[in-house]
Specification:
The complex is a heterodimer of chains A (196) and B (308).
Chain A: H1 2-55, H2 64-83, H3 86-109, H4 111-114, H5 117-152, H6 156-162, H7 179-187, H8 189-194
Chain B: H1 4-41, H2 50-67, H3 69-76, E1 80-81, H4 88-101, E2 107-111, E3 118-121, E4 129-133, H5 134-139, H6 142-157, H7 160-187, H8 197-240, H9 243-255, H10 282-289, H11 297-305
Parallel strand pairs in B: 2-4
Antiparallel strand pairs in B: 1-2, 3-4
Helix pairs in contact in B: 1-7, 1-8, 2-7, 4-6, 6-8, 6-9, 7-8, 9-11
Classes of the chains: A mainly alpha (196), B mainly alpha (308).
Chain lengths: 196, 308
């Protein structure tokens, strides 16, 4: 009888260890996939924006520098996606994000084109594409936070220690620990980067 | 100040406490009713007796409702599928939240009704449906819409349809057993001359439970539904990090005077805001509040404001 109880307890323990182990490995795989998703969204953005701006070219004739910046950002994104590094992707994304406000300002500066349908369509798409990049980052952040919290909290930290699951950096450490200043800048990024 | 993780944890705990309390209550009610059956009619509880019969009936009906919920609801509310070009805002907001949560993109539908409202249905994230009214898309800004859609996404992520089904099955069992007991009490052949005091007490208990427990079970079911609404509100903030957006969306939806034509009592609990307007104050309001599927808007806004 006691032997059977012991077996049941051991079995339950085994199942718990397996489930927890699987949580860590699948989290890692999901985080990897969601980092690829950031690249995917950046690439979509890099292809979409020049096309959109092209379609409004008639309206934005004197904004040559926007087009130059766009093609530069696009190149950076393509090479970042090839390398697959979070840091590089994040940098390339920032480059592209820096162009967005100047497009917005170009539209704001020309009240006569502001109301036109093609421009409002452009603004909608711009908002959408930056949201998509933001949400793909959010997923990496959330998944990493889940993983890291489980890694340090009891009792799942025991399994993490046994199998040596390391802490994952997510997106924050990719910015070299300057997350506070960076996030402050990013809360009002448009103006800072635009007039530089 | 309450951060969103604490708020989630607190609400999940409250929700599981209510569900646990519900399960306890239902078990006691079923036990008492079966005992009363036993003494009153000389019914012997077999492995698949009255309880099994009630479980099968209630389970079968709830399973049908659960499995086909999305189709039933959509056909009742006469919704049309959403289109990326025509409903750009709606479509892209859902796309983005699907990216942000890692869930598959639900199927999207629009009801042509000027009253702003929204609901989610479907048995699991793979079969989820999000439906909004035309009024919602017209009256809300993109950020507000994001708050509403994120609320629906958290219903999907929390498997609220599944929980609601399980709860409904148990409420159904209690209601069926109570009903059967009352029927047999009126017309059945009792063995009243053989009873001692203890047995009589159990029969009286059985009568009380038969009358009251379906009502009480229903009230707890509604409390669970209200708790899940709070949880979905907090989940929405967790996804968008913009409580202000959901607050102003809830205000706009609840202040809107247009009645939602396609909603009825059977589908009302699905919507983000109860399509039948809340009215009344004081004790009457508190009492009618017990029967509401949704917490009052002011209460929901108060919780959201804590997270700002």
């Amino acid at each position: 009888m006691q032997f059977i109880i012991l077996i049941i307890i051991l079995g339950a323990l085994m199942i718990w260890v397996i489930v927890t182990y699987n949580f860590y490995v699948s989290s890692k795989a999901r985080i990897k996939a969601s980092i690829q998703e950031i690249g995917n969204q950046l690439k979509r953005q890099a292809e979409l924006i020049p096309n959109l701006v092209e379609s409004t070219k008639g309206y934005l004739t004197h904004e040559k520098e926007i087009f130059a910046k766009l093609s530069e950002a696009r190149k950076a994104i393509v090479s970042a996606i090839k390398s697959g590094a979070v840091q590089e992707m994040s940098d390339a994304g920032a480059k592209l994000a820096a162009v967005l406000p100047s497009i917005k300002v170009a539209v704001e500066d020309n009240p006569e084109i502001k109301g036109s349908e093609i421009v409002s369509k452009l603004m909608d798409e711009l908002r959408d594409t930056s949201d998509k990049v933001m949400y793909s980052r959010r997923l990496v952040i959330d998944l990493t936070a889940d993983y890291n919290v489980r890694r340090v909290s009891f009792p799942s930290n025991i399994v993490a220690k046994i199998f040596r699951f390391e802490e994952l950096p997510g997106i924050i450490t990719a910015q070299e620990g300057e997350h506070l200043t960076v996030s402050e800048e990013e809360s009002k990024p448009q103006k800072i980067k635009l007039y530089k | 100040m309450l951060n969103v993780y604490e708020a989630t944890q607190k609400n999940k705990l409250k929700s599981s406490l209510i569900v646990a309390g519900f399960i306890c209550f239902v078990s006691v009610a079923i036990y008492v009713l079966l005992e009363a059956f036993n003494y009153y009619l000389g019914y012997e509880a077999g492995p698949l007796g009255l309880f099994g019969l009630a479980l099968v009936i209630s389970g079968f009906m709830a399973y049908l409702a659960y499995y086909f919920s999305d189709q039933i609801v959509l056909s009742i509310s006469s919704a049309r599928p959403a289109d990326r070009k025509k409903d750009f805002l709606f479509y892209t907001v859902v796309e983005n939240l699907a990216i942000g949560t890692g869930l598959p993109k639900p199927r999207l539908f629009v009801i042509d009704d000027s009253a702003p409202n929204a609901f989610a249905a479907g048995r699991d994230p793979e079969h989820a449906v999000i439906c909004v009214t035309r009024g919602l898309l017209d009256k809300l800004s993109r950020t507000e819409l994001e708050g509403v859609i994120a609320h629906e996404f958290s219903h999907i992520r929390n498997y609220d349809a599944r929980l609601a089904t399980l709860v409904a099955v148990m409420v159904g069992i209690v209601a069926l057993l109570g009903d059967w007991f009352l029927r047999s009490a009126w017309g059945g052949t009792s063995r009243s001359n053989e009873k001692d005091r203890g047995e009589r007490l159990i029969v009286i208990f059985g009568l009380v439970f038969a009358i009251l427990s379906p009502l009480i079970a229903r009230l707890i079911q509604l409390a669970i539904s209200r708790r899940r609404e709070f949880l979905a509100d907090i989940g929405s903030v967790e996804m968008t990090r913009q409580p202000q957006a959901l607050i102003s969306a809830l205000e706009k939806i609840s202040k809107d005077m247009n009645p939602l034509e396609s909603a009825n009592k059977a589908t009302a609990h699905l919507y983000i805001v109860n399509p039948f307007k809340e009215k009344g104050h004081g004790v009457v309001n508190w009492f009618s509040g017990l029967f509401n599927t949704h917490p009052p808007i002011t209460e929901r806004i108060k919780v959201l404001k804590q997270m700002m």
